[in-house]
Amino acid sequence: MPLAVRWPFPAGPPLPWALASRLVTGLVGTYSCVWTRECPAGARPGGGGGWRARGGWGGWGMPGVRGRGAAFPCRAPQPPSPRPGYLNRLRVYNAEVLHELVERRGPCTPLLTLSNHQSCMDDPHLWGSLKLRHVWSLHKMRWTPTAADICFTRELHSRFFSLGRCVPVCRGKVNMGQEFVRFKWGIGRLLAECRLDPVILPLWHGGMNDVLPNAPPYVPRVGQRITVVVGRPFSVRPLLERLRAEGTSTVEMRKALTDFVQREFEALRGQARALHPAP
In Å, how far are 24, 82, 196, 205 from 37, measured between CA atoms? Predict the structure, then answer.
């Protein structure tokens, strides 16, 4: 399906575009840190609320990631002490895992995050789980797939979202409920065709649909409770190498990779719902 606007990204982004992009992501990120800032008593490395890593990070030189999938020894997250946030109350469990991957992974190691989707403002409001130095750095801020039929229908909107590092994608059927549905095989294709070995980090959040409900008048609320649980980082490289060695077809390879990632994600979902029960 063609875009309703011109392709918004220049080839070899010039300096003015890069500066404008940094300004847009930085300002939106700062707004998000005010709107959904992490409670001051959140988890600290080795303290009362994080995955505790033991051992090496395999080829990545960081604690806890090695080999296939769930090879990140840890203990269950403990709830942080309640403290007020800013406009909403955000609690991030295992935030140090996300921060260390953003800051310390190797320059040739991509970071691929996966999360559930509750509200049209999941991104960028969840940027409050990052630090200001992250949201003002183009080298550390994410690229994210964005609904072309919503955010890329006018040239002005297209310019804004592209400067915010949003990439237009055409969506299929949208799940408007809260039930857990099967992942689409696009995840498996992305991993199968990636030329590098990305660190995959699952995230599960609850409460964003209270901050911005999926019903009119679509006005963000304050004073809501938001929970983000950062899962265990893992790699699919050993699985991918085995599938290739076995001569697995392209379709079966995508399915196997998608199923593997979904199992990791489902395990995190159970832990997150215990910390933020659904109403």
Answer: 19, 13, 33, 14
Structure tokens that stand for 248 in this block: 């697995």
Which residues does residue 38 pair with via DSSP β-bridges, in sequence order? 90
Q: From CA 41, how far away is CA 46, in angstroms rounded?
A: 14
**Quick one: which of 138, 272, 130 has its CA closest to 207?**
272
C-alpha 178/C-alpha 8 separation (Å) is 32
Q: What angle do CA 76, 79, 84 make, to 5 degrees?
A: 155
Q: Are 211 and 226 in contact (CB under 8 A)?
A: yes
Read off the tokens for 168: 């237009």
- Helix/strand/coil percent split, the chain, to 5: 40, 15, 50
Beta bridge partners, 206, equal: 227
Three-state secondary-structure class, residue 182: coil
**How far apart (Å, rounded) are the C-alpha atoms in residues 130 and 36?**
10
Structure tokens of 173? 């059927």
Cis before residue 2, ω within 30 degrees of 0? no
Digit-coded pLDDT (tens) for 70-102: 344 444 554 543 444 578 888 999 999 999 999
Q: 59 is written with which tokens?
A: 């080829």
Separation between Cα atoms, residue 114 and residue 231, nearest integer Å? 10
pLDDT digits (tens, 9 = 90+) for 109-125: 999 999 988 888 888 88
How far apart CA 50 and CA 90 sit, in angstroms, is 15
The answer to whether 118 and 213 have CB atoms below 8 angstroms apart is no
Per-residue CA distances from 239 to 23, 68, 146, 164, 192 (Å): 40, 7, 29, 34, 10
- Return the DSSP state at 241: H
What is the C-alpha separation between 129 and 37, in angstroms, rounded? 7
